[in-house]
C-alpha cells in the first residue's frame, strides 16, 4: 500500500457510508478527519453575514418541493461555498505536512479535481450507491435518533439524495476520479485505500 498521501478526500452522495469509513480509517491510521457536514451544520445554526442568500435555504424544508434539477443547482451552490470554507483548513494540513481525511457529500468533483492537479500528495475516491431502496434504508438507519420529517418531505429529501448522488458520480467519472460501490459497508475502508494505491 502506498503511503505517500497527505490529504485523502472521500466524496459521494448522501448515505453511502463515507463518514463511517472515514472515521474508521482515521482511527486505524492515526489521522485527523474533517467532516464537511460540520461546516453545513455551522451554517444552519448561524449563517454568517458574508454567506450568500441561498445558504438560508438550508433552514427551509419547503426547498424539497423544488424540481430535482433546481435542487441539484442549489446543492452545488451550497457545496461550492462549503468547499471554500474547508479549503483554508486543508491548506493548513498541507503546510504542516500532516495527514487528514476529508469527507462529505458537499465535496464537489470540480473542487477535488482542482486540488488533485495542484498537489500529488492529495488523493481522492468517490463512493456511490445506485439503489434507491438501500439509500432509503441507510438514511433511516443513520437518522434513527432524530425525528424524521413528514413522509412527503422525507420522500423528496430521499429523491434529492439519490439524484444528487448520481450527479456527483457522473461528474467524478468524467474527471477520472476513482469510483467505488459503497456496499458491502464493512469492506469499504479497505477498498478506499486500495483505490488510491
Structural summary, described in words:
The structure is a single chain. The chain is of the alpha/beta class. The protein has one domain: Rossmann fold, CATH 3.40.50.300. Helices cover 53% and strands 12% of the residues. The chain is built from 7 helices and 5 strands, in the order βαβααβαβααβα. Strands 2-3-1-4-5 form a 5-stranded parallel beta sheet, with helices on both faces. α3 crosses α6. It is globular, with a radius of gyration of 16 Å. The mean pLDDT is 86.
Descriptive labels:
single chain; 197 residues; alpha/beta; Rossmann fold; five-stranded parallel sheet; 7 helices; 12% strand
In short:
With 197 residues, this protein is an alpha/beta fold. It is built from 7 helices and 5 strands. It has one domain: 3-Layer(aba) Sandwich (Rossmann fold).
Estimate percent helicity.
40-55%
Radius of gyration: 16 Å
Question: Which descriptor suits the 3D outline?
Answer: globular
Most strands sheet? 5 strands, parallel
- Overall domain count: 1
- Percent in strands: 5-15%
Order of secondary-structure elements? EHEHHEHEHHEH
Low-confidence stretches: none
The CATH topology assignment is Rossmann fold
Q: What is the CATH superfamily classification?
A: P-loop containing nucleotide triphosphate hydrolases
What is the annotated CATH architecture?
3-Layer(aba) Sandwich
- What is the CATH class? Alpha Beta
Number of E strands? 5
Amino acid at each position: 500500500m502506498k503511503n505517500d498521501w497527505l490529504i485523502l478526500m472521500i466524496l459521494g452522495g448522501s448515505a453511502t457510508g463515507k463518514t463511517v469509513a472515514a472515521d474508521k480509517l482515521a482511527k486505524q491510521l492515526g489521522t485527523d478527519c474533517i467532516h464537511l457536514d460540520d461546516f453545513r451544520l455551522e451554517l444552519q445554526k448561524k449563517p454568517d453575514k458574508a454567506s450568500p442568500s441561498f445558504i438560508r435555504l438550508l433552514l427551509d424544508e419547503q426547498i424539497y418541493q423544488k424540481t430535482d434539477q433546481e435542487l441539484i443547482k442549489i446543492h452545488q451552490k451550497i457545496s461550492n461555498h462549503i468547499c471554500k470554507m474547508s479549503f483554508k483548513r486543508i491548506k493548513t494540513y498541507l503546510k504542516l505536512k500532516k495527514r487528514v481525511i476529508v469527507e462529505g457529500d458537499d465535496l464537489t468533483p470540480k473542487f477535488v479535481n482542482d486540488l488533485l492537479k495542484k498537489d500529488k500528495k492529495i488523493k481522492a475516491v468517490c463512493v456511490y450507491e445506485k439503489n434507491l431502496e438501500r439509500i432509503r434504508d441507510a438514511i433511516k438507519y443513520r437518522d434513527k435518533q432524530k425525528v424524521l420529517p413528514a413522509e412527503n418531505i422525507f420522500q423528496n429529501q430521499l429523491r434529492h439524495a439519490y439524484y444528487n448522488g448520481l450527479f456527483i458520480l457522473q461528474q467524478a467519472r468524467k474527471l477520472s476520479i476513482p469510483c467505488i460501490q459503497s456496499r458491502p459497508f464493512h469492506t469499504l475502508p479497505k477498498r478506499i485505500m486500495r483505490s488510491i494505491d
